[in-house]
Amino acid sequence: MTVMSSLLDVLIETARRVLVNAYAPYSGVRVACAVETDRGIFYGVNVENASYGLTICAERSAVASAVAHGARKIKRVVVLSDDVVPYPCGACRQVIAEFATDDCEVIVVHRGEIVLRKLIWELLPHTFKLRGAQQ
Fold this sequence. Notes:
CATH superfamily: Cytidine Deaminase, domain 2
Largest sheet: 5 strands, mixed
CATH topology: Cytidine Deaminase, domain 2
Radius of gyration: 14 Å
Strand order of the largest sheet: 2-1-3-4-5
Number of strands: 5
Structural class: alpha+beta
Number of helices: 4
Shape: globular
Order of helices and strands: HEEHEHEEH
Distance between the termini: 33 Å
Helix content: 25-40%
């Protein structure tokens, strides 16, 4: 097993472990996310709200946690759900792109199977991003 594969396994297992903490009483769709950053691995889950517009996706939850801990470079993102294929929404793609490295990979896992593995730039071409800024 390569280092890359074993780290991917750790990210998937981290997302799997925290999936039980997702708060999804309205949709019943639980999603977890683990991000590999320059400061380690961070994770998040979706947190729904009776006012649907205030719902927080797992990806944005994980990125916010990473940033709160000082991370500024996202290298890899794993989004996992057993309920649906959890493709990141447009807002989450934009938030990931804000901190993504040039080779940042997004991996979507549904029921234990990788169903998508792409660079963030393939999922969000022509990204609106502050270029050349100190991160």
